[in-house]
Design a protein that fits this description.
By secondary structure, the protein is of the alpha+beta class. The protein has 2 domains: 81 residues; 129 residues, 2-Layer Sandwich (Heat Shock Protein 90). It is built from 6 helices and 5 strands, in the order ααααβαββαββ. It has a 5-stranded mixed sheet, with helices on one face. A hairpin with a 3-residue loop joins β2 and β3. It is elongated, with a radius of gyration of 22 Å.
């Protein structure tokens, strides 16, 4: 009963988080976005009417900064309000993430899976996808790796996610305080009744295995 309560609690937390992000995204678009758009129009009007000839260059630069900020804000709003996580399978989400990273040419991500493309329970899909994102970002930022390997499999009892890089690694036994992202990944896995195993040594890369019962 305790495990079931934890699972239900995590499902509720994930749903609240999703709705909160959508609300923030809409507020960004409707409020802040509109104000930036208005400021951009004012700056463009000043330039067209040449009402501030001595500060023409400065006003033009301000307009460019506003437009760049508006573009970034729209992308943020879109990401927060997107239903991508709800409407796509875990395989599709990870494949897309791998494609984005491979386009950067910082390292090469290799993804293998045995899952059929379908929609998994949202709370499990959300946790596994966020774990994948966190591992990828950590490897790119800190490990100096050339390759990252992702393997996703499923049987009648569990879903298994294996993540591995060939970077510089670190000594897990001396890791006294894990980063917030890593702690959150481990906590969410445990709340789903899953196992979280992080393995690494200096000069041998890092490996993370996550198993969640279904």
């Amino acid at each position: 009963m305790d495990e079931e309560h934890k699972r239900e609690l995590l499902e509720t937390q994930v749903e609240i988080q999703s709705q909160t992000m959508k609300h923030i995204g809409r507020e960004i678009h409707d409020s802040v976005g509109q104000k930036l758009t208005l400021a951009s129009l004012y700056a463009q009007q000043l330039i067209l009417e040449q009402r501030v000839p001595k500060a023409f260059t400065e006003v033009n630069e301000i307009g460019e900064i506003i437009n760049e900020s508006l573009s970034e804000l729209r992308q943020l709003s879109k990401s927060l309000t997107s239903d991508t996580l709800e409407n796509h399978s875990l395989v599709e989400l990870i494949q897309r993430e791998c494609e984005l990273i491979n386009q950067l040419k910082e390292c090469e991500v290799h993804f293998k899976h045995t899952l059929k493309t379908k929609l998994e329970p949202y709370h499990i899909k959300s946790v596994l996808f966020r774990i994948t994102q966190e591992f990828l970002q950590n490897s790119i930022k800190h490990s100096r790796c050339e390759n990252i390997f992702i393997a996703l499999s499923k049987d009648a009892e569990k879903i298994q996610l294996k993540l591995k890089d060939d970077g510089k690694g670190f000594d897990v036994t001396t890791l006294k305080t894990r980063g917030i992202g890593l702690r959150n990944m481990e906590k969410r896995t445990q709340m789903l009744g899953g196992d979280f195993l992080l393995e690494s040594q200096n000069d041998t890369g890092t490996k993370l295995t996550v198993e969640i019962p279904i």
